[in-house]
């Protein structure tokens, strides 16, 4: 296996430009060549401009000196000063063809492993036990999974943590209610659909809440049940374990349907930290970080304020002695740093929890757990809105079940695919509909700027045209079909071949893949990868319209173009894979 990374051409150009700048201005220190892709040439380097200012030189004149000082004949064919002093750079066709060959020649398309040796925790999904997963859990699950896959692809050791809401006083209430209503049907009502059990539980949970709020006697019995649960009463624990197990089965069914990489091994729910809470809180009290306030235990901050600029404390323990969500997250962060040895912890959680994480991180920093060597980051995201751009509700005003949304997307995708494949085998069609419907949902979510709200419009997301997952999957099938028609021949690149404008654009875009991945991971923004892949599909289309592949005029052109097609197909499939989206070979 050849895993040696291929240096992107943009980086090679940077190196050549650093040399040129140094030759042109020997007295200067570190230089930034500022190389980027350009419409006018292959690349543009803007680095001479700030240097001219700094050294009191005429920028165009300095640009000429720098351009003349470039010494990379195998790489750079032409360098020309333009505008106020930019340098337009064109590469030799040979360097670009060689790059295509180099990427095809190595594993993993030659992308590097910049995150090798890093331990990155991704905290995502985190649904709540005894409740159905609803549309609110979609984004954390999809974005978190893409970030986990991306970091892994760049060499990180990724530890997925599914912080289930599986602990707290609400379970006392629910268990008490179930005890008092043995006739309530919820358990394994339908083996075929594990989400049905949770749907039933969700209903009972709401019933329990109503009784809890209206019947003080039940409230007392529910409180006693909480104590029983927390002190480890075996009968109570048994019901609790059952609730967790049945819920986890339902979550698994959704993860499987969604093609999300979370498994049972990644479950680390709130209950996991229960045995650490006393110790964690004691440590904070001893350090003077947590203080008593009106019977409760809190952390106060000078510089963190909530809505209306009011100072808000972080509540660790309520006056009744119960620990809450915050104490658990503090135990979790200490554990993740001390025991899991995290270098980075990403919390892929709704933007509405921003204040909570600010406070948790600040507390962990004060406690000395979170040091400068560790990066804890809240990766927030916006809300999923209904197709009309308003809050997403069912017709009767309820929350929208995630499973029914996925079913709807798959049904719509199935219509689109069936129209194209009138005589397809029904089983194939069903598999394809699942791949495209789920791909459509994921792509619609990931391609939107993470922090923005977006409207969940199934009709639009399954469209074969435009910036959709289905369009990208279709582009992949077109690439696959060209290669299939070309037969088993293994084409190889002739670097001396001439190069058309479209071949050049496609090859240079393909070469920017690894930089895009680094950027997407660094900014925790999968939509950058989506934008890249969409541009790839379009660049390929322009290429294909102007450059026949199978009917190319010469064997040399045909072979080189087949190599480009293969690299484009592999890159598209790889990128879709990192987004958790399937790449069918035909559709
Ligand atoms: N269960 C929580 C919710 O539904 C999400 C958990 C996020 N992770 C965390 N470490 N707090 O809002």
From TrEMBL:
UniProt-annotated location(s): Cytoplasm
Q: Which positions does the motif 'HIGH' region occupy?
A: 127-137
One Pfam family, please name it.
Answer: tRNA-synt_1d
Domain (Arginyl tRNA synthetase N-terminal) spans: 11-91
Span of domain DALR anticodon binding: 472-587
* GO CC, alphabetical: cytoplasm
Annotated keywords: Aminoacyl-tRNA synthetase, ATP-binding, Cytoplasm, Ligase, Nucleotide-binding, Protein biosynthesis
- Which reaction(s) does the protein catalyse, per the Swiss-Prot or TrEMBL entry? tRNA(Arg) + L-arginine + ATP = L-arginyl-tRNA(Arg) + AMP + diphosphate
Query: SUPFAM superfamilies, from UniProt?
Result: Anticodon-binding domain of a subclass of class I aminoacyl-tRNA synthetases, Arginyl-tRNA synthetase (ArgRS), N-terminal 'additional' domain, Nucleotidylyl transferase
* Superkingdom per UniProt: Bacteria
Task: Provide the assembly information.
Answer: Monomer.
The UniProt entry's sequence similarity note says:
Belongs to the class-I aminoacyl-tRNA synthetase family.
User: What protein name applies here?
Assistant: Arginine--tRNA ligase
Q: Which gene encodes it?
A: argS
């Amino acid at each position: 296996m050849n895993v040696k990374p291929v240096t992107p051409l943009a980086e090679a150009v940077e190196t050549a430009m650093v040399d040129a700048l140094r030759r042109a201005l020997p007295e200067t220190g570190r230089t930034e060549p500022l190389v980027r892709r350009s419409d006018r040439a292959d690349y543009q380097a803007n680095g001479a401009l700030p240097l001219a200012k700094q050294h009191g030189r005429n920028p165009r004149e300095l640009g000429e000196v720098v351009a003349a000082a470039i010494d990379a004949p195998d790489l750079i064919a032409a360098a020309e000063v333009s505008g106020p002093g930019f340098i337009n750079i064109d590469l030799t066709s040979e360097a670009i063809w060689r790059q295509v060959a180099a990427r095809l020649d190595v594993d993993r398309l030659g992308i590097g492993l910049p995150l090798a040796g890093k331990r990155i925790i991704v905290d995502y999904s985190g649904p709540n036990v005894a409740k159905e997963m609803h549309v609110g859990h979609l984004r954390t699950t999809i974005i978190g999974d893409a970030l986990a896959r991306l970091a892994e692809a760049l060499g990180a050791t990724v530890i997925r943590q599914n912080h289930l809401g599986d602990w707290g006083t609400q379970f006392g209430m629910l268990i008490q209610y179930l005890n008092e209503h043995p006739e309530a049907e919820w358990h394994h009502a339908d083996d075929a659909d594990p989400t049905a059990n949770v749907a039933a539980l969700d209903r009972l949970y709401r019933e329990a809440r109503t009784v809890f709020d209206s019947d003080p006697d039940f409230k007392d019995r529910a409180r006693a049940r909480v104590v029983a649960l927390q002190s480890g009463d075996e009968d109570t624990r048994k019901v609790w374990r059952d609730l967790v197990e049945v819920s986890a089965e339902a979550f698994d069914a959704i993860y499987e349907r969604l093609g999300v990489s979370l498994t049972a091994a990644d479950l680390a729910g709130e209950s996991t930290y229960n045995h650490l809470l006393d110790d964690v809180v004691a440590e904070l009290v001893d350090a003077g970080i947590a203080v008593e306030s009106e019977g409760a235990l809190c952390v106060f901050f000078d510089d963190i304020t909530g809505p209306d600029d009011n100072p808000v404390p972080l509540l660790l323990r309520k006056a009744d002695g119960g620990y809450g969500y915050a104490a658990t997250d503090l135990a979790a962060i200490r554990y993740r740093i001390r025991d899991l040895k995290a270098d980075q912890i990403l919390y892929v959680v709704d933007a509405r929890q921003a204040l909570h994480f600010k406070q948790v991180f600040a507390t962990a920093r004060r406690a000395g757990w979170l040091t400068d060597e560790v990066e804890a980051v809240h990766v927030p995201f916006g809300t999923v809105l209904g197709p009309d751009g308003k809050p997403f509700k069912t017709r009767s005003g309820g929350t929208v079940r995630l499973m029914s949304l996925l079913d709807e997307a798959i049904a719509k995708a199935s219509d689109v695919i069936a129209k194209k494949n009138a005589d397809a085998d029904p089983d194939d069609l069903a598999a394809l509909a699942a791949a495209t419907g789920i791909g459509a949902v994921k792509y619609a979510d990931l391609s939107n700027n993470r922090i923005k709200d977006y409207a969940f419009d199934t009709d639009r997301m399954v469209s074969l045209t435009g910036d959709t997952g289905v369009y990208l999957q279709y582009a992949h099938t077109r690439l696959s079909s060209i290669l299939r028609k070309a037969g088993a021949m293994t084409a190889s690149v002739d670097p001396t071949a001439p190069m058309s404008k479209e071949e050049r654009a496609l090859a240079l875009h393909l070469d920017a893949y690894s930089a895009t991945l680094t950027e997407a991971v660094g900014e925790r923004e999968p939509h950058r990868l989506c934008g890249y892949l969409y541009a790839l599909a379009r660049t390929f289309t322009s290429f294909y319209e102007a450059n026949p592949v199978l009917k190319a005029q010469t064997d040399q052109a045909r072979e080189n173009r087949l190599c480009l097609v293969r690299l484009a197909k592999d890159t598209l499939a790889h990128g879709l894979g990192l987004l958790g989206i399937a790449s069918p070979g035909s559709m």
